[in-house]
Automatic annotation (TrEMBL):
<keyword id="KW-0812">Transmembrane</keyword>
<comment type="similarity">
    <text>Belongs to the binding-protein-dependent transport system permease family. FecCD subfamily.</text>
</comment>
<feature type="transmembrane region" description="Helical">
    <location>
        <begin position="291"/>
        <end position="312"/>
    </location>
</feature>
<feature type="transmembrane region" description="Helical">
    <location>
        <begin position="208"/>
        <end position="229"/>
    </location>
</feature>
<feature type="transmembrane region" description="Helical">
    <location>
        <begin position="68"/>
        <end position="88"/>
    </location>
</feature>
<feature type="transmembrane region" description="Helical">
    <location>
        <begin position="100"/>
        <end position="122"/>
    </location>
</feature>
<keyword id="KW-0813">Transport</keyword>
<feature type="transmembrane region" description="Helical">
    <location>
        <begin position="128"/>
        <end position="148"/>
    </location>
</feature>
<feature type="transmembrane region" description="Helical">
    <location>
        <begin position="318"/>
        <end position="336"/>
    </location>
</feature>
<dbReference type="InterPro" id="IPR000522">
    <property type="entry name" value="ABC_transptr_permease_BtuC"/>
</dbReference>
<keyword id="KW-1133">Transmembrane helix</keyword>
<dbReference type="Pfam" id="PF01032">
    <property type="entry name" value="FecCD"/>
</dbReference>
<protein>
    <submittedName>
        <fullName>Iron ABC transporter permease</fullName>
    </submittedName>
</protein>
<keyword id="KW-1003">Cell membrane</keyword>
<keyword id="KW-0472">Membrane</keyword>
<dbReference type="InterPro" id="IPR037294">
    <property type="entry name" value="ABC_BtuC-like"/>
</dbReference>
<feature type="transmembrane region" description="Helical">
    <location>
        <begin position="260"/>
        <end position="279"/>
    </location>
</feature>
Amino acid sequence: MSRKRAAWLWPPLGLVLLAVSALMGVAAGAASISPLDIAGALLGRLPFTSVDSPLSGLQEAVLVELRLPRVVVGALVGGLLASAGAAYQGVFRNPLADPFLLGAAGGAGLGATLVLAFGPQLLDSPRALVPVAAFAGALAGVAAAYALGTIAGGSGTTTLVLAGVAVSSFLSAGQNLVQMIRVEDLRLIYAWMMGGLGRGGWDDVAMIAPYAAVSVLVLLGCGYLLDLLALGDEKALSLGLNATGARILVIAAASLATAAAVSVSGLIGFVGIVVPHIVRRLVGTGYRMILPMSLLTGAAFLILVDIAARTLIAPAELPLGVVTAFLGAPFFVFILRTTRNRAG
């Protein structure tokens, strides 16, 4: 079997990985529920089926109202962050580009924090505006990092990373200022900034579903554009691609994906850099395959990390951002060393 034909086996494998991870996610917890009982309960909820749920009323409530929405939110957040990271890496042609390193997550976090802190004083239902404010902040963060990197001497790997770190630090200072002003909301804002899925419910799924759908559809449709951009602007132009317009489209979609994820999960780092690099080593360098596989693998990855976060020190729960930082920081150092060795 040729490599090209074999590559298309990866999406079905990604779907299997996601399904297994989701089943593990809804099964894990203090109340033990077997995978077979979970499957039977979910099957009984499908229309036109007469299967009786094997779960008690309490078990079914735990499954449907607590565990299932948490897994769905985790899958959405992981898939959005991973696909956004892959898109940023492709559009900037930079292996270290990531929603957090480029300031997108920091900008989204600041926008969401402003709504959480001041929204209740101004609006009756401020939570619906969190994704919108996060999107505006994400776009501003990426634009500032790229502009600063360009002014400082180009868009090379080191320059762009340093610019992103500077912008992220500035945005983090803005968040700290908001916390000082709104001391009464400090606990809520701080818990949100640490990142986690414990608050995830069906209302969160409904809130970000439209933004997630739009961003994912656009990003998956941009795989061919990113493959052309990888050839260089002159080559892409000779093939009829407007490089500037393509970059704006990809950056906007990736920033919307980041904003949707951050608005419900808080700040969860390194997903957008770890997952795309793992996927790239498996499926190759074509973004028409990297993007959908990053979406599926990122969803499964964050579900599994969330299982670890809520079981390692049970009954207490680790902040999800802390767990991803422990996993991602060494991986980032490895990627940085590999990139520098190649450049040298």
